Amino acid sequence: MGDEKKEVSEVKETETKETKKAKAEGKKSFLSENALEVITVILLGITALLTAWASYVGSIHGGNQATNYATSNNLSSDGNSLYNAAVQNLAQDMGIWNTISSYEVEILYAESVKDNTAIEANVWKLQWFCEDNLPENMAAAIGYDVEKFTDGNNDTQDILAWLKDDKAITTPFTQEFIDKYFDEANAKLEEAEKVIEQGKQDNANGDKFSLVTVLYSVALFMLGIVGVFKNTTNKKIVLAVSVVCLIIAIVFMATIPLPTSGGIFG
To answer: Is residue 15 part of a domain?
Structure first.
C-alpha cells in the first residue's frame, strides 16, 4: 500500500515538472531570440523606407515653397506695375474730364447769352477732343455718344440736349468708377498674396516632415541597438520603445498634407 502511494506521488511530481517545463517552453517560444531578430529586421526596413519617403516629400514641399515665393514676387511686381499704370491713367483721364468740363461750361454759357458762334465753336472743340481722347469707360459714365455726336446730323442740338442731362455735367469719378482703374492690379496683388500663403504653408509642411524624419531616425536608432542587449527583456523594452516612436511618426505624418505639385504629385 505504501509503495503504491509512493508511485502515485512520483507520477504526480513528474507530471508537475513536465507541466512547468511545457509552460516554460511556451513562454520561451513567444518572442524568442529568432522572432525578435526577424521583427527587428522587418521594422528596420519599414522605418528606413518611411524615412526616405518623408525626406522626399519634405524636399518637394521645400521646392514648392521656393517656387511659390518666386512666383509671388513676380506677381507682386506685375501688380505694382499695373497699379502705377492705373494711377497714371486715372490722372490722365481726370485731365481729360477737366478739359471736357471747360468746354461744357463754355457751351452752356454761350447758350445762356444766345451766342451761337461761341456755341458752334465750343461744340466743335468738344466733338473733336472727345473723338480723339475720350476713353470708352468715361464716355459710358457721362453718356457721351461719340458716333451720334459727330455724324454731322444735328450735332450741336444733340450735344445741347445731352448737356441737359445731369450725368453729362457731373464728374464720373465716383469711388466705384475710380476703383475700376485698379481692378487688374488688385487681382494680381491678391493672386500674389494667395501664392505667398501657399508658400508659407509649404514651408510649414516641409518643417513638419523634417520633424517626422527625426522621429523615424530615433526609431531607427532604437531598432539598431536592439541586438546590443543580451537580456531578452531589455531587447523587448527597446523594441517596444522603437515601435512607439514609429507609430507616433506614422500618425503624425498622416496628418500633414501632401504637396499640391512637384515630383510624383504632378
So the answer is: no
